[in-house]
Give the backbone structure.
Amino acid sequence: MKTQNKIILVLIAVFVGYTILFSVFIYYNISNYAFADFYKRLEIRAITTAKFQLEEKEDAEVIRELRQEHLETLQDEKINLYPLSSDRSWKAIDGIEEYNSGFVEEVVTSGTATFNDQKTFYYGVVYRSSDQKDYLVLISAENYFITHHISYFRNLLFISLGVAFLIILLISFLFSRKIIEPINQIIHRVNEISTGNLHKRLPEQSDNDDAISKLTRTFNDMLNRLETSFESQKNFISNASHELNTPLTSIIGEADVALSKLREPAYYIETLMTILEDAEKLSKKTSALLLLAQTGFDGKKQKFEKLRVDQLIMDVKGTVEKINPKNQVQIDFSLLPENPSLLKIDAIEPLMHLAMSNLIINGCKYSNHEPVQVAFGVTDTQVIILVKDQGIGIPQNELQFIYDPYFRASNTKNHEGYGIGLPLARNIIRMHKGQLYVSSETGKGTVARVVIPIGSSL
Ligand code: ADP
């Protein structure tokens, strides 16, 4: 069943159910009231009639006037007064047979009784006159309220129920359409989005906090994540094919030229050396990619050991400066904690060494070997390492791609690199349950921030 129909059905069921319940309640109470009220009228008329006929002349006159002025005569009203003998036998009374015997018996034994036979209502009372004689007063009349008003009222209820049903149907239809429409719009827009136009988003209403707006925002967030990941995939393929293709084209070109005619041995040696150089580059790039793939796993197989961060940074400084003597690393010890055990992290030392040296070498490389500052500090739960350079920086719009394998920013033409260092460093840091954040400004420099949890005390 369509959601819209379901909503209509539920709304109608609730509204109609409530209206019927409400109508039954009113109908029941009003007809009860009509019964009680009519018997009360009969009682008043029975008593006043008895008083008027049986009491002193003066009182009777007053009562007659009262009765005429204030009490309307009831439809088909019939009233009879029968004297009761002291043994209260009533069966022999002349004309009593027209009344229901059970009703008369109850009047005589209980003093009063009521009875109704479809639309005719009966009231009976034993009246004791001022001269201590008992009379059986029986009154009957047609209850016009039951015959006319109640049936009119019943018809009115049925008609208003019918009208209410139509109004509810209309409201439910409009209401459900109002609820469903935004969902239909979302479905329509979502159907328009494919890999070709992943940049498209659903229109958001920022001031609205209902479920539909939340759904729209959640969907847009998901599209953002999908788009970034899709872009990364696309980037990886184009970066990788470019990076691997360049040395391969060079190797093929060199070999082609060398083989095009017979040459001097020196030429072959030179060509082979160039080919070897390119092949080594290719090998480095593929093994870096292999390492990257390996660190992409959860690292459960590797062995974690306690490692002091200050010690690690000193070792990395040694390595970085050995790789290129022009590299300068300045370590800032000012934030060193008094308790050196706080500097211990759980780490796989060779991998952490690789990650930190990649970050520091980048700092040296992209600042043309200006000094790179490395500082570290601790909080209650984390060790923070900052690597800061004053180099070329990363263009703002390219920052989001720096973790894509083989990605190289547009301002790195004069610097050699493979585009593997940062994704590799991030994978290694993540293996250590840490985070890597890079902030940068073109022409001013770059700061890489590594946050790693303090090692467990065990
Ligand atoms: P690469 O081998 O190109 O340095 P990385 O993966 O280490 O590869 O870095 C990816 C890209 O991020 C670099 O090509 C460069 O554009 C940018 N980058 C990383 N670190 C820095 C830095 N310290 N200064 C400027 N750009 C940087």
